[in-house]
Automatic annotation (TrEMBL):
Keyword Heme: no
UniProt cross-references to InterPro entries, sorted A to Z: T2SS_GspF_dom (IPR018076)
Keyword Membrane among UniProt keywords: yes
Native source organism of the sequence: Streptacidiphilus pinicola
Domain of life: Bacteria
GO cellular component terms, semicolon-separated: plasma membrane
Stretches that traverse the bilayer: 6-30, 166-191
Topology class, membrane: Multi-pass membrane protein
Listed name of the protein: Type II secretion protein F
């Protein structure tokens, strides 16, 4: 589209040549749009990230009440929507079948990088024997704070992007109405003295 726009804007054989060059450079250096699989993976990753704080809080509550880890994870998986529910059900099944808790939580983090902090927190608690409730509550708070920072950054970026068209409209008008008359007037005065 960029090459076609340049070809129409410049016109003639030169425009078509410049358009073809710009289109070839664009195809070479611009990134390809993500495919359907990549978009689905990104959407699932964003859903997991948004569900992680609530899941961590629920796990903290269940484990603070001395519920066994497999029962706590199964209860939280039942309460949560997909896609995090499926990941937690798989971990609960592994734990109920006697899998090593550290290895189970490491697999959870390795399978989905978004859930890696949850897996590390639970693996650390399983290896040390410490109650994981406090670590899970800190994880939930940290994830919520991170989401708030990202939302603030998106809002600031949207504000900047919203002002760009305004600048593109007013800057040429300012130059044509404010700068060009002054420059032509000064040029006339200087050229008149020569």
């Amino acid at each position: 589209m960029l090459g076609l726009g340049l070809a129409v804007l410049v016109g003639g054989p030169t425009g078509w040549l410049l358009g073809a060059v710009v289109a070839a450079l664009g195809l070479r250096f611009l990134p390809a749009p993500p495919g359907t699989e990549e978009r689905a993976r990104r959407r699932e990753s964003e859903l997991l990230r948004s569900q992680l704080p609530l899941a961590a809080d629920l796990l903290a509550g269940c484990m603070a009440s001395w519920c066994p880890p497999d029962a706590a994870v199964a209860a939280v998986a039942e309460a949560m929507p997909q896609p995090i529910a499926g990941r937690l059900v798989a971990a609960a099944v592994q734990l109920s079948m006697g899998a090593d808790p550290e290895a189970c939580w490491d697999r959870l983090g390795a399978a989905e990088p978004v859930l890696a902090p949850l897996g590390r927190c639970l693996a650390r608690a399983a290896s040390s024997g410490a109650p994981p409730a406090a670590g899970l509550a800190r994880l939930a708070d940290a994830e919520r704070a991170s989401a708030a920072r990202e939302a603030g950054a998106r809002v600031r970026r949207a504000g900047v992007l919203a002002t760009a068209p305004l600048g593109l409209c007013f800057l040429p008008a300012f130059v044509l109405v404010g700068v060009v008359p002054v420059v032509t007037g000064l040029a006339g005065i200087f050229l008149g003295r020569l």
